[in-house]
Amino acid sequence: MVRILPMASTLTSLATSRFGVFNSSSRLNSLQFASNVRSQSKTFGHRACKLFRQEANNKPAARTIVSMAQGSTITTQENALEWVKSDKRRMLHVVYRVGDLDRTIKFYTECLGMKLLRKRDIPEERYTNAFLGYGPEDSHFVIELTYNYGVDKYDIGTAFGHFGIAVDDVAKTVDLIKAKGGTVTREPGPVKGGKSVIAFIEDPDGYKFELIERGPTPEPLCQVMLRVGDLDRSIAFHEKAFGMELLRRRDNPEYKYTIAMMGYGPEDKNAVLELTYNYGVKEYDKGNAYAQIAIGTDDVYKTAEAIKLFGGKITREPGPLPGISTKITACLDPDGWKTVFVDNVDFLKELE
Question: What is the C-alpha to C-alpha distance for residues 24 and 159, in angstroms, rounded to an integer?
Fold first, then answer.
């Protein structure tokens, strides 16, 4: 069985929620509340603890204590949505697994014009990461490659689509890739039903890249395409839970698919998520190669509660990573795609 070791930022420890979301269906026992209150007693004093002991089973009192301890009054979807829209979010990096790290780095730097930004080896966990992109990590969307010792092949599956790269001249880029022995799966030409010039290539591990002819842009690594089973559901989730904007939507009935571009800013200046719905297809095989996207946030605790409120599943509770104290939380969207949210301040400290 293949041992899959994700990037370090997918690890986390348990942490207390800052939202304090309670309603008539909540089932919180006295022991849980006692632990929460004791942890805050130095800040809020004996009065809060006494209030808890006297009225632990009284839900209004419970809400008062949590509000005192955590300083949050966000208890509804409406309030959560307001906070999500005001949060400072940016797509940080996309993570996936490769079978030969040096081979992939060579292809990305020589054929796609990326730079190797940094590399880290974790021998005790038997994996190595390499970060590549077109600019510094503190301002650009980048790729995080993961090589697990001894694993030379992965299953990409049918759910992952492709990455998008904006280039000045698609034909010249394709010629370079051919000269380096790369695989071209679609020759340069106008996109079906449109005028944009594109081409498709594959990297040595079989990941597809769409080359998009576009003028100068601050974000050449511009798209991640994922397939979903219910486009309206996925759009609503990414708008509400992730705070993304629906930038555009295009239906292609002739080819029986619809796409939606989601992101935190215009496509020509920011990396975006391209969601694709193929008519009548509800489920896909995700394989074990693609891992996740990481997104920056000002508060991983509030982010986790918003995700829960809007139907996502938290797979790692918010809190600091062991050893480096970077706070993260991880979740699955309704289609099972994984996303990791990383504290903005902690992320910048990691890069120092």
Answer: 39
Angstrom distance (rounded) from CA 142 to CA 131: 7
**Beta pairing, strands 221-227 & 208-213:** unpaired
Tens-digit pLDDT profile for residues 93-130: 999 999 999 999 999 999 999 999 999 999 999 999 99
**Which residues, 6+ apart, have CB-to-CB distance to 227 below 8 Å?**
158, 159, 160, 161, 275, 276, 277, 278, 281, 284
210 is catalytic: yes
Q: What is the pLDDT of residues 138-159, one digit of tens each?
A: 999 999 999 999 999 999 999 9
Instruction: Please answer whether residues 228 and 212 qualify as being in contact, where contact means their C-beta atoms are separated by less than 8 angstroms.
Output: no
From the candidates 137, 210, 219, 267, which is the catalytic residue? Answer: 210
The arrangement of strands across the sheet holding 127-133 comes to 115-122, 127-133, 142-148, 90-97, 290-297, 338-343, 327-332, 313-320
Indicate the pTM of the whole model. 0.80
